[in-house]
Amino acid sequence: MVSRSRLGATALLFAAGAVASSIAVKAEDWKAREAELLGLHQLCNKGDRKACVRFGMMLGEAKERHADWRQLHADWWWWEH
Which of 6, 18, 43, 47 fits a disulfide with 51 by CB distance 3.0 to 4.6 angstroms? Predict the structure, then answer.
């Protein structure tokens, strides 16, 4: 018979592994999203109106990343300068 504390520790380790795994996936997702934003921003600067709209929508959807992106890409917030 397995003790409760051992079961609890196993469950805790499993949960920690799942969280770490999801953080790594999210980091890769954010890198891909940032790369897409860079491409859209370039197209927008060249006059592609659809790219401008998509860029603005994606930027607005990622509010939790705004602080980081403001430091890295100040030109994305040109209207605040």
Answer: 43
Q: Which residue has the higher pLDDT, 78 or 24?
A: 78
* 3-class SS letters over the chain: CCCHHHHHHHHHHHHHHHHHHHHHHHHHHHHHHHHHHHHHHHHHHCCCHHHHHHHHHHHHHCHHHHHHHHHHCHHHHHHHC
Q: What is the pTM of this model?
A: 0.59
> What are 51's two structure tokens?
């790219």
Backbone φ, ψ for residue 36 (5° rounding): -65, -40
